[in-house]
Amino acid sequence: MPSQPIFVVQLHDARRRHYDVRLEVDGVLKSWAVPRGPSLDPVVKRLAVFTTDHDLEYASYEGVHRDAQYGSGAVIVWDAGVYTNLTRDDRRQLVDPAEAIERGHLKVQLHGLKLNGAWAFTRTSADWLLVKVKDADADPMLDLTVAEPRSVLSGLTIDELAAG
């Protein structure tokens, strides 16, 4: 039985600090830059800019980029885990994640150290939106980006990592 695909959320202090939400799909990490980070409030829609695919090995990267390939600046692994694809078509058939992204709507169940529950990625005319699905893991009063600033790998904040 194949293992579940991984997800990772990396906090990246490039030109602007943002969260990169990455999902393993067909052997690569499909990636969205989320400027304000994931929200646990189902009413809040977060801008999610679809970016370039990354190699799977990048999921555990922490450090300071000195070149422009992935944007210079410090990177920490803010959250990580596995996910379950929940995307269904009109006939209630499961839709492959790559096809769901192509169609412009992907729904996943995250099983992370910080983020849990269902989330939806939806393409708009210009970009994508990331929205927490209303479920038992939704919490409009909790901002995990403030409450849990540390890396799940190193335990460092992004500022501590950047300072060396």
Give the N-terminus to C-terminus distance in angstroms.
41 Å
What share of residues are in beta strands? 35-45%
* Cα Rg: 15 Å
- In quaternary terms, these chains amount to single chain
| Low-pLDDT segments | none
The helix tally amounts to 3
Q: Based on CA inertia axes, which overall geometry fits?
A: globular
Structural class: mainly beta
Domains (count): 1
Q: Compute the average pLDDT.
A: 94
Q: What is the helical fraction, as a range of percent?
A: 10-25%
Widest sheet: strand ordering: 1-2-3-4-9-8-7-6
Tell me the total number of β-strands: 9
Question: What order do the helices and strands follow?
Answer: EEEEEEHEEEHH
Largest sheet: 8 strands, antiparallel, barrel
Q: TL;DR?
A:
The protein has helices spanning 97-103, 144-147, 158-163, and strands spanning 6-13, 17-25, 28-34, 45-55, 63-65, 73-85, 105-112, 116-123, 128-132. It has 3 helices and 9 strands; from the N terminus they run E-E-E-E-E-E-H-E-E-E-H-H.
Describe the protein.
With 164 residues, the chain is mainly beta. It has one domain (6-163). Helix content is 10%, strand content 44%. The chain has helices at 97-103, 144-147, 158-163; strands spanning 6-13, 17-25, 28-34, 45-55, 63-65, 73-85, 105-112, 116-123, 128-132. It has an 8-stranded antiparallel beta barrel. Strand 5 and strand 6 form a beta hairpin. The radius of gyration is 15 Å and the shape is globular.
